Amino acid sequence: MAIIEAPAAAELVRRATELVPLIRKHAAWQEENRTLHEEVLQAVTDAGLMKMRVPVRYGGYESDVRTVCEVISELARGDGSIGWTVSTMTISSWLAGLFPDEVQDEIFADPDVRIGSSVSPNGVAVPAEGGAGLTGRWPFSTGVLHSQWFIHSAVLAGADGGFSPVLIAVPTSDMTVVDDWHTVGLRGTGSVTTTVQDLFVPEARILPMLPLVLQNQHRSELNAGSPMWRAPFSPITAAGAAAVPLGMARAAQEVFFERLPNRKITYTTYERQAEAPLTHRQVAEAAMKIDEAEFHVLRAAERVDRKVRNGEDWSIEERALARMEMGASTRRAKEAVDVLNTASGGSSIYSDHPMQRIERDVQTISLHGVLHPNTNLELYGRVLCGLEPNTHLL
Q1: Inside any domain, residue 3
Q2: Helix (H, G, I), strand (E, B), or coil: what is residue 128?
Q3: What is the DSSP string of 315-331?
Q4: Which residues face 271 on adjacent strands?
Q5: What angle in degrees, to the nearest 10, is found between the helix axes of 80-96 and 354-366?
Q6: Three-class secondary structure of residue 225 per DSSP
Q7: Beta bridge partners of 137
Q8: How far is the C-alpha of 263 from the C-alpha of 189, rounded, in Å?
Q9: 109 and 126 share a domain?
Q10: What region holds the Acyl-CoA dehydrogenase C-terminal domain (predicted)?
Q11: Torsion sign over Cα 7, 9, 11, 15
């Protein structure tokens, strides 16, 4: 496959920005149908935004983390569901680049391949000749409805009776989809449950997780020299995932100000909501929280890019800080949406008003096990207090 010149960061962000009206046009449809609209997916693909973390030799861009975050934030400004799905597919492409090169040749044979992933080890792989038999059930399989490949987390049974976490690349056609995505938020992601039973997986498609996460070791020779694969998994994931609630908060801010000129405060003498001191306080508070969320996202992204450029190692504290940044930005984004939703009045509860969807989406994403603010703050505090981290996702 011919190597193409990657677009500049500003160009990729511009393309994402131009897609916002189209994404918003289909946001209600995506929520009602619990899946992404094909026109939205095709537009994102045509804009090249699925290639940001694809190896250059397969026509990808190998974009830096800040670019990825700014693009994802813009997509999420259109609709949180497309933002979250593209964020997941972007990190999934990066994960695929950790597998042996012959596996990558198989996965990226289609230049427009989409890849989903799940980080919860809800499967068990039992060694067999030439590979392993995989059985599992994975809720929250984001991207599976639109992907040709999926990277699942599982545990590999050892001869000593123990288990070790692994990543396993599986064609989506080998999995069974359970249509159970009946949720209050992020409905458009279609993050259904997937299952497999005694599925044989070749050894090359099984990747030990702990060396990947903690020692940044992988099995690709051709990607070994690329800066994109010299950064640890968790800090990369933290920045990209946290960009989604940031985009949601910006969307809430836009929705609020679009309605503000024609709104009054019912049962008061304020004929214009914009004249009320309470409104001034609310919009200022929300703007401050959005700025704080952006600060954490960009600081996390720039830390990864800087350390990759300089070839610096990562301390446990820096890895935990990345998780803290993700939790802090999610919290601030949710708080901003809460303030703007509260200021939007009773008319905002109608199903055709985007504010109620944004409120539900940001609440949903804040409950995600990896983004959950309290969990990430506790993790960072443990490390600051000299204790061992209580997770391998660092």
Answers
A1: no
A2: strand
A3: -HHHHHHHHHHHHHHHH
A4: none
A5: 40
A6: coil
A7: 195
A8: 32
A9: no
A10: 240-371
A11: positive
Structure tokens that stand for 67 in this block: 């670019």
Q: Distance of alpha carbon 135 from its chain centroid, rounded?
A: 25
Query: 191 CB contacts (<8 Å, ≥6 apart)?
Result: 139, 140, 141, 142, 143, 144, 181
**pLDDT in tens for each of the 394 residues of the chain?**
556 788 999 999 999 999 999 999 999 999 999 999 999 999 999 999 999 999 999 999 999 999 999 999 999 999 999 999 999 999 999 999 999 999 999 999 999 999 999 988 999 999 999 999 999 999 999 999 999 999 999 999 998 889 999 999 999 999 999 999 999 999 999 999 999 999 999 999 999 988 776 667 788 999 988 988 988 888 998 889 999 999 999 999 999 999 999 999 999 999 999 999 999 999 999 999 999 999 999 999 999 999 999 999 999 999 999 999 999 999 999 999 999 999 999 988 999 899 999 999 999 999 998 899 999 999 999 999 999 999 888 8
- Element (DSSP H or E) covering residue 133: strand 131-138
- The enclosing domain of 141 has a CATH number of 2.40.110.10
- Containing 163, the helix (H) or strand (E) segment is strand 163-171
The one-letter amino acid code at 108 reads: F
Print the domain residue range for 338: 231-384
